[in-house]
Design goal:
Layout (H helix, E strand, L loop, with lengths): L3 E4 L14 E4 L9 E8 L9 E2 L2 E2 L5 E4 L10 E3 L3 E2 L2 E2 L2 E2 L4 E8 L13 H11 L3 H15 L5 E7 L4 E8 L7 E8 L4 E4 L17 E3 L13 E3 L3 H7 L12 H5 L4 H18 L7 H4 L12 E2 L7 H7 L30 E3 L5 E3 L9 E9 L5 H4 L1 E6 L8 E4 L28 H4 L3 H29 L5 H33 L5 E4 L5 E7 L5 H11 L5 H9 L1
Parallel strand pairs: 1-6, 16-17
Antiparallel strand pairs: 2-3, 2-15, 3-21, 4-9, 5-8, 6-7, 9-10, 11-12, 12-13, 13-14, 14-17, 15-18, 19-20, 21-22, 22-23, 24-25
C-alpha cells in the first residue's frame, strides 16, 4: 500500500503573498562574506507563522498529496524522494533559501489544471536540494512533470556560495509546463525584485559558454554556468504573439510582464529605493520610476554597491518608506496628524471633484504577515552557518529574531496554532505594530528603543554562540541552537509585552507622560505633542478661516 504525505501550505495564508519584496546580496558584496536575502510576505489581515518540516527517509512508493490554495486537486500527488532535508521557514539544513515575489504578468498564462502552485514548488525544492543550483533544476523538472498553476513569479534561490534569480510563468490552459529564466547574481553585486519581472535580455546557449537551456539541465552544476532557461522561452513567446524580434534582443520581462506606470511605481520603486541606499547614482532612474519610459525604460537587474552591506544594513533596508527621496511618505500632509509612513488601502482613491490619486507602496508595509532576513555563511558548519532572522508583522516594527537552520522546535510565538487569523492571542508575536500606527511619530521612538535593545543583544550574542559550539558534537550543537532560538524568541515576547503595557500608560488620552533619562515615568507632568508640522501647514488651505485664531481675536476686538 502506498504511503501518503500531505503537503500543507506554509501559513495556510500564503495565497495572500501577492505583494512581497526580496533583497539580495552576493557574498563579495557583504561585509563578512555572507550570502544574504530577505522576504516580506505581504498580504492582508493575517499574522504569519514559521513553517517547519523535519528531515526524513521515505519509502520508494510514498506519495505527497498536494493541497494548494488554487483549484482543488483532490487525489493528485507528487512522488516522494528517498530523503528530505530539515526546513525551517524558507531555509533548509544546507542553508539553501528560497523566497519569492509575485509579478502576475500575462494572466492568460495561468493553467488551472497544473498541479503545483509556486509555494508548493518552493517547499518541495527546499526539501530536496543541497545547493541553489539543485533547487533550480528541481523546480524546473517538477513543473515539467506536474504542471504549474500560479501566475508569474520571481524566485530568489540562495545557498552559502551563490544567489540566483529565477523568473517563471505558466503556458496557459492545457499546457502543463512553464517558461522560465534563471540568472546567477554576481558575487560583488546586490539585486532585488518586488512584484515586477526584472529579467530582460539574458545570455543564450548558442552565444555563450556560461548559459544552458533546459535540454541540458544536467550541466547546471558546472561552475561556469550562470544562466539557465527553458528551451522554449523565446519560441513560446513568438507562438503567443508576445514577441517578434530576434533571439538576441528577446526580453523576458517585456514579453511576459509588460510594464506600465502602476507596476513600475508600486513595484520597481522599491528596488530603486534599496539600490539608492547603497549606490550613489540611482537618481538617474527617477524618470523610469515616474513613468517616463521614453526617457528610461528600466533599471539594471543588479548593481555593485558603493560599500559592502552588513546584515543590519539589510534589515534597515527592509524598514524603508522612501525616506529622504522624492517619494518620501512622511514628508507631506498625507502622512496624517502623526507622520505615518504607511497608507490605508486602496492604492487609488478619488476626490469629491472626481480627481484620481494614487499612493506610494514602500518596502515596509502594514500588511506584512511575516518578515525575514536570511544569512548563509560558507565558512561555518551548516547548522550554525544558516540563520533566518524572523518575526511576524511589519519589518519596520519588529525585532528580527535569529533562528538557526538546524532547529527542530518552533518557538511558541511563531507556531501556527498561536497565530490564528481571526483571533487575538497573547502568545502571538504579531500585534504590537498596530498600537503604533495611529500615532506613529508620538510612539515610534519608544518602539525603536525596544527594537534596538533586542537586536543589539542578538547580534552581540552571536560571537558567544560560535565560541560555545566549537567543541560540541553535531547533536549537542543542534540541542544548544534549539534552546538558543527559543530563548531569543521568548526574550522578544517579554520585551514586547513590557513595551505594549508601557505604550498604553504613556500615551493615554493622547498625551505623552514625562519620563526620566532611564525611561521611568515621572510622578507628575506630561506633554501634549500635537500634530506633525506638515499636517498643521495643510490645515489652512484645507479649511480656510475656520480655525484661524487671529480672526476670532480681531472680531472680539471690534
Amino acid at each position: 500500500m502506498k504511503k501518503l504525505i500531505s503537503l500543507t501550505l506554509f501559513l495556510a495564508s500564503a495565497a495572500y503573498a501577492l505583494a512581497c519584496t526580496n533583497l539580495i546580496v552576493g557574498k563579495k558584496a557583504s561585509t563578512d562574506g555572507s550570502v544574504m536575502c530577505t522576504y516580506n510576505c505581504d498580504g492582508f489581515g493575517f499574522s504569519g507563522s514559521l513553517f517547519y518540516s523535519p528531515a526524513g527517509r521515505h519509502d520508494k512508493d510514498e506519495l505527497i498529496a498536494i493541497h494548494g490554495w488554487g483549484p482543488a486537486h483532490e487525489g493528485q500527488y507528487v512522488k516522494q524522494v528517498e530523503y528530505t532535508y530539515n526546513v525551517v521557514g524558507l531555509m533548509n539544513e544546507h542553508q539553501v533559501t528560497i523566497v519569492e515575489t509575485t509579478f502576475d504578468g500575462r494572466l492568460e498564462l495561468i493553467n488551472n489544471d497544473g498541479l503545483l502552485d509556486y509555494f508548493s514548488l518552493m517547499r518541495l525544492a527546499l526539501q530536496r536540494s543541497a545547493t541553489a543550483r539543485e533547487a533550480i533544476r528541481c523546480m524546473a523538472e517538477l513543473v515539467e512533470e506536474y504542471g504549474y498553476n500560479s501566475s508569474g513569479e520571481s524566485i530568489t534561490v540562495c545557498d552559502p556560495n551563490e544567489a540566483w534569480i529565477m523568473e517563471i510563468i505558466g503556458k496557459g490552459e492545457g499546457k502543463k509546463g512553464a517558461v522560465w529564466v534563471a540568472l546567477r547574481v554576481p558575487d560583488d553585486c546586490i539585486s532585488a525584485h518586488a512584484n515586477l519581472s526584472r529579467i530582460r535580455q539574458f545570455p543564450q546557449e548558442k552565444d555563450s559558454k556560461n548559459s544552458i537551456s533546459s535540454k541540458n539541465l544536467k550541466k547546471i552544476n558546472r561552475p561556469e554556468i550562470e544562466c539557465v532557461y527553458a528551451h522554449d522561452v523565446i519560441s513560446f513567446a513568438r507562438e503567443k504573439g508576445f514577441y517578434e524580434g530576434s533571439d538576441k534582443d528577446f526580453s523576458f520581462r517585456d514579453a511576459y510582464c509588460p510594464i506600465d506606470f502602476e507596476n513600475v511605481r508600486y513595484a520597481d520603486a522599491r528596488v530603486w529605493s534599496f539600490f539608492r541606499h547603497h549606490r550613489s547614482d540611482m537618481d538617474q532612474y527617477l524618470p523610469y520610476i515616474n513613468g517616463e519610459f521614453d526617457v528610461c525604460d528600466g533599471m539594471p537587474l543588479w548593481v555593485r554597491p558603493d560599500a559592502p552591506l552588513s546584515l543590519r544594513d539589510l534589515q534597515h533596508d527592509m524598514r524603508d518608506h522612501f525616506e529622504g527621496t522624492p517619494l518620501d511618505m512622511t514628508a507631506d500632509m498625507t502622512a496624517g496628524p502623526w507622520g505615518m509612513p504607511i497608507r490605508p488601502l486602496p492604492m487609488h482613491f478619488r476626490s469629491t471633484d472626481s480627481i484620481d490619486y494614487y499612493r506610494e507602496r514602500p518596502i515596509a508595509t502594514q500588511q506584512s504577515g511575516f518578515t525575514m532576513t536570511c544569512q548563509m555563511r560558507s565558512w561555518l558548519p551548516d547548522d550554525v552557518g544558516g540563520i533566518t532572522w524572523f518575526n511576524c508583522d511589519d519589518a519596520d516594527m519588529v525585532a528580527y529574531v535569529p533562528l538557526y537552520c538546524c532547529i527542530t522546535q518552533v518557538p511558541d510565538c511563531f507556531r501556527p496554532e498561536n497565530n490564528p487569523r481571526n483571533e487575538f492571542s497573547f502568545e502571538s508575536a504579531f500585534w504590537v505594530a498596530n498600537m503604533i500606527y495611529p500615532r506613529y511619530s508620538m510612539m515610534i521612538g519608544d518602539l525603536r528603543i525596544a527594537q534596538n535593545e533586542l537586536e543589539d543583544y542578538y547580534f552581540a550574542d552571536q560571537e558567544e554562540v560560535l565560541k560555545a559550539i566549537e567543541t560540541m558534537t553535531a547533536a549537542d550543537r543542534r540541542d544548544y541552537l534549539n534552546k538558543k532560538s527559543i530563548a531569543y524568541a521568548d526574550r522578544m515576547m517579554q520585551r514586547w509585552d513590557k513595551l505594549a503595557k508601557y505604550l498604553i500608560v504613556r500615551y493615554n488620552d493622547q498625551i505623552k507622560r514625562r519620563v526620566d533619562e532611564n525611561g521611568n515615568f515621572q510622578r507628575w507632568g506630561h506633554e501634549t505633542p500635537g500634530y506633525d508640522q506638515q499636517f498643521i501647514d495643510a490645515i489652512g488651505p484645507a479649511t480656510g478661516d475656520r480655525y484661524r485664531l487671529d480672526n476670532v481675536i480681531e472680531r472680539r476686538e471690534r
